[in-house]
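Blinded run. Sample ID left blank on purpose so nobody reads anything into the name before looking at the predicted structure. Input follows.
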Amino acid sequence: MMAGVEIIKTEIGLMGIKKLIEQHHEPAEDFIFKGNEKEKFRSLKNIQRKKEFLAVRSVLQEMTGEKSEIRYNKEGKPRIAGNSQEISISHSADLAVVLLSRQKAGVDVENVSRNIRNVITRFLSEDEWRMVKNSPDPHLSALICWCAKEAAYKHSGSTGMDFKSQIIIHPFEPVPEGGKFSGEMLHGQKVIAFHFNYLFFENNVIVNCVEKSKNQID
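Blinded prediction complete.
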């Protein structure tokens, strides 16, 4: 296994995780640019973005066993060139996370110390805000809700979605070992039901989501 890459098997696919502690270059034996990746990398001015760019591609190489090219559609949703698997990508200040699944899925990661106080009222509904305030750990509950809504947004591949009114999180209480909860998305005239799973890794919370099948019951 490539140094610094951890792969976790989840219910919906494989999740690869890499710490962003290395310099903004990779040893030649660990990383090979493909297509126009080198030009894209050189165009990045921010060192953190360079770390993210290389970490994600290193993780993907470890997960698939080959060097694959990541492409993006006009909405910014990633896909793997020549591969039918679904891919979702996320970064925190210190981690890069890649989720591969045969199903349409989404993933988001945030450091548990991130301050989201100033944006809470922009993404939580009144019912969700009430749930968060009554939680044993309001900050963590709010952060998991934020990650869940980001994951659902990435699942949708749509732009201009209102997190507060269109993505709904059902009541849950976070537990240290990680767990599950449910939610839904209002997308046009369609209601999409979701399963969410969360876990903790190196002072980060990671949430992934997948659409419920029609015959699944909570």
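Unblinding after everyone has recorded impressions. The chain has a mean pLDDT of 89.
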